[in-house]
Amino acid sequence: MKIGKILNNNAVVSEKDNQEIIIIGRGIAFNKHTGDDINEQQVDKIFTLENKDMQNKFKTLITNMPIEYMEISERIITYAKMKLGKKLNESIYIHLTDHIHFAVKRYTSNQPIKNGLLWETKQLYKDEYEVGLEALNMICEHFGVILPEDEAGFLALHLVNAELNEEMPVINDMTKVMQDILTIVKYHFKIDFNENSLTFYRFITHLKFFAQRLVKGNHYDNSNDDDLFGVIKEKYPEAYRCTEKVKKFIENNYEYELTDEEMMYLTIHIERVAKAK
Description:
By secondary structure, the protein is an alpha+beta fold. The protein is 62% helix and 7% strand. The termini are far apart.
């Protein structure tokens, strides 16, 4: 491989299989010029970003970013993939690296930011939040800074963002919708959720994708299975009454009308989570 463009001493642009790639490695471009061979022993990471806009943003980030932040970001992402067992959108390399950089800068300038969604993040995205806490330990080891718990929540939301391939404002709106629905269910049944149960996990997963559709204005394709919906309403009357409360709240606050199919699945999940031990 040959150097196509030098971004900084630790990053170059090259080409492989007729596709542009970004290569990271300490000192990989030191005393090098465009057209020189790349020392493959110095290669730490090769990025192949298919999205052209994302690729350009990544180049800009790398050009102005100390390699230490790329290294810690890569370490955290590798850990997250292993821990979560989920595919993460390639944008995570940009957003997470950028966030960590500014988080450390805020810490050294004594300018912490409070996370208004920390409680919801801890409840709704437990696995991602646990990764966020471990990421704080890694950052502490790497930079010698002890970031506040709020940052674990921010990092967790970046992971959720990468899982669902959405922008951060959408994730924040989704989190608010999910918390609103959980509050309605909790007070309707006067219960505390068993947050460690598989049923609660399934409910959260259902709400996550429901909230995503709501925020983006999409719906389930209605199957028009009125008979099945009628059976569910009759079988789980209290859960259905709760679903009607959710429907009214969503219509009033989000101008989104639930379909019968969404009502049916929501009723089933509410019945299960209300009865979970």
